[in-house]
Write a structure and sequence with these properties.
alpha+beta, Glutaredoxin, four-stranded mixed beta sheet, 4 helices, about 20% strand
């Protein structure tokens, strides 16, 4: 019976680790030496996962100097960094090219998050 409990527990951990279908994510296209990326990292990145927006669309970093990820082949590449691409269910919802400060970023990301489908209640 112990091995069955272990197998069930392992399955539950695996299921919890897989993102839900239709889950949103915020891609951050960046590159080494990008001063504006560093500014975003100092001003926004530490708080992002603690915000409603960050919980709705976790940050995924993509280094544009590295090979492009297979699951993003359909996403237009950028040369300008940082660029933020809001994705939902594998589709681009919107993008922000550049980072000029926290106020503009929060305003624009709020507009983009509002375009996401409303979250379904599980209760």
């Amino acid at each position: 019976m112990t091995s069955l409990k272990t197998a069930v527990l392992a399955f539950l951990v695996l299921v919890a680790a897989v993102p839900a279908a239709g889950a949103a994510e915020l891609l951050m296209l960046e590159q080494p030496g990008c001063a504006w990326c560093a500014r975003f990292n100092a001003e926004i990145a530490p708080a992002w996962p603690k915000t409603e927006e960050g919980r709705r669309a976790p940050l995924r970093r993509v280094d544009i100097t590295e090979p492009w990820p297979d699951d993003l082949k359909h996403v237009a590449r950028e040369r300008f960094t940082p660029t933020f691409v809001l994705m939902e269910d594998g589709k681009e919802i919107g993008r922000i090219r550049g980072y000029v400060g926290d106020e503009f970023f929060w305003y624009r990301i709020g507009e983009m998050i509002a375009l996401l489908p409303k979250e379904q209640s599980t209760q």
